[in-house]
Each structure stands twice: as structure tokens, then as C-alpha cells.
């Protein structure tokens, strides 16, 4: 009876872990049609870039996270059973296995979740690169939103001096290379 309960617990945990990790079904970032691009072009490029991103992340790359979770649960169960048997015999082996299963499952769920997050981030990066290369508007970090030649909003800078008409340095300042 204990054997069937333990088997049911292992199967339930494996199914639970499999549900924790998921393969990205699409980007978690928004892209917009680029200037001069119509919606049909955008949709075609979007489909192509989704396929490219899926390929770049290894198709079902998140399966590695599920596998890591199952491995962690199995190893935790074995270690718990061995520790329980070493401490107090058969009854403790069952309790150790159950404890190992719970702890291993929790560690496995964490590994699967971390893997899913990394896979989504890699998918998004590949998608954004692809859409950008096709001329569409994609999200960028706030500090990079302005071009380097564009002044920040509200900034007022004096115009550069005309060529050949450079004013002298301020008093008390020695230009580099001059002897004073």
C-alpha cells in the first residue's frame, strides 16, 4: 500500500512539474509596423520572426527545465529514502522518501521556472532582433530611445562657432601644449 501511495505521489509531482514550465508561445514584447510598412507586410514578418525566435530558443527548449525539475524530484526522493533508511529503518525510509520528494519537487519547480524565464527572454531577444532587421518598430531601453545627435527635450545649446572663427580661451586658462 505504501508503495502505491509513493508511486502516486511521484507521478503527481512529475505532472505538476510539467505544468510549471512552458514553451514560449509568442513574444512578451510589442512590435509595431515600421514606417512605410503595411499591415500585411507586418503580419508576414511577425510570423517569420516568431518562427526564427522559436528556432533560436531550440524549439521546445523549455523541455530542459521540465527535465531538470523531474530529475531534481527523483534525486531528492532517492536521497530522502537513503537518509531515512540510514536513520531509522524501513518506516523512516518511506518518510525520508516522501520528504525528499517534496523538497526535490520544490527545487525542481524552481529550476523549471528559472528555465522558462530565461527561455522567454531569449525568445524575445531573437524576435526583437528579427523585427528590427526588417524595419519594424521594437521596444528599446529608455536611455537609447533618443539618437545621440538629438538634444533632450527642453535642452538649449548654443550653436557651434563658424568654421575658422574660434573665440580665444577664457582668461586664466592655458590651452594644452602652450607654455605659460
Describe the protein's architecture and organization.
- By secondary structure, the protein is mostly helical.
- It has a domain at 2-6 and 36-141.
- Helices cover 59% and strands 0% of the residues.
- It has helices at residues 2-20, 39-56, 63-88, 90-133.
- Helix 1 (2-20) runs parallel beside helix 4.
- It is elongated.
Question: Layout of SSEs?
Answer:
Layout: H1 2-20, H2 39-56, H3 63-88, H4 90-133
Gross morphology is: elongated
Number of helix segments?
A: 4
Binned, the helix content reads: 55-70%
Rg, rounded, reads 30 Å
Mean pLDDT: 73
Order of helices and strands: HHHH
Q: Got a strand count?
A: 0
Percent strand: under 5%
The secondary structure category is mainly alpha
What kind of sheet is the major sheet? none
The poorly predicted ranges are none
Cα distance spanning the termini = 98 Å
Amino acid at each position: 500500500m505504501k508503495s502505491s501511495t509513493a508511486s502516486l505521489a511521484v507521478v503527481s509531482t512529475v505532472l505538476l512539474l510539467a505544468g510549471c514550465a512552458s514553451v514560449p508561445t509568442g513574444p512578451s514584447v510589442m512590435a509595431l509596423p515600421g514606417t512605410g510598412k503595411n499591415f500585411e507586410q507586418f503580419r508576414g514578418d511577425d510570423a517569420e520572426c516568431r518562427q526564427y525566435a522559436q528556432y533560436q530558443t531550440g524549439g521546445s527548449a523549455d523541455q530542459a527545465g521540465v527535465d531538470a525539475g523531474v530529475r531534481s524530484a527523483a534525486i531528492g526522493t532517492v536521497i530522502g529514502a537513503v537518509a531515512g533508511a540510514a536513520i531509522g529503518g524501513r518506516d523512516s525510509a518511506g518518510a525520508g522518501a516522501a520528504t525528499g520528494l517534496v523538497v526535490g519537487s520544490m527545487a525542481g519547480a524552481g529550476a523549471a521556472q528559472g528555465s522558462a524565464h530565461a527561455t522567454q527572454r531569449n525568445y524575445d531577444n531573437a524576435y526583437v532582433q528579427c523585427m528590427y532587421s526588417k524595419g519594424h518598430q521594437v521596444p528599446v531601453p529608455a536611455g537609447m530611445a533618443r539618437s545621440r545627435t538629438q538634444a533632450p527635450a527642453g535642452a538649449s545649446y548654443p550653436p557651434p562657432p563658424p568654421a575658422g572663427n574660434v573665440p580665444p580661451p577664457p582668461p586664466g586658462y592655458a590651452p594644452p601644449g602652450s607654455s605659460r
